[in-house]
Amino acid sequence: MLSDVNILYHIYISLVLICLIISLTANNFPKGIWIYFLAVFVTDVYMYYGYEYCHYNIHHLAMVFYSLFFLWYYRKVFTGGWFRILFSALFMMGTACILLISNPYDLKIIAILVLSFISLPFLWFYKEIKEVNRDKITSKNLFWVSSGLIIWVSFFIFKMIPLYFLYTQDKQFLLEIDLIFQYVNIIFYLILLKSLFCKL
């Protein structure tokens, strides 16, 4: 009999797969977004089913990739030298993390992910508020993507900050947080699924 965590995982990974399929077929969605969904699908299927055989954690590689992907994804929104500087800095830090850090949950890697997942959505919302246009904000896929990223990274921070402490002091509470995070993952990908039906 499947546990709650297993059921939630399969719902989550099914949503990722649906997003991947739709992103490959939708004409109005930016080219290349399928790469992100494919990376998430491969990473999480491997970590769920393959890790016990290979014992190589790829989360640090995935987190750096996700950060760089969303920098690329928002590139047309944020133009100018400062954005290129931000991209270059995060790219160099990400490369250094991949080459030098073996701990997949090192704070430097987590910081790169959090920095990109927080700064990009809030900068987009700031730009939308500052530059008034006729398009309804909820009709834009970046509204849903940005909202989803903010929700996801908020819970991710809540999960990761006490991770090491709870691992040694209260594993049961850590498991409860992980269960909540499974729900957050499902909500996040439902939001991304909604974004696939909106214009760029």
Anisotropy-based shape: globular
What would you report as the Rg, rounded to the nearest angstrom?
Answer: 17 Å
Q: Could you describe the largest sheet, including whether it forms a barrel?
A: none
Distance between termini? 42 Å
Percentage of β-strand residues: under 5%
Number of strands: 0
Structural class: mainly alpha
Overall pLDDT level = 80
Which runs of at least 5 residues are low in confidence (pLDDT < 50)?
Answer: none
Range of helix content: over 70%
Distinct helical segment count: 8
What order do the helices and strands follow?
HHHHHHHH
Keywords, please?
200 residues, 0% strand, mainly alpha, globular
Concise account of the structure shown:
The chain has helices at about 5-25, 35-55, 60-75, 80-100, 105-130, 140-160, 165-170, 170-195. By secondary structure, it is mainly α.
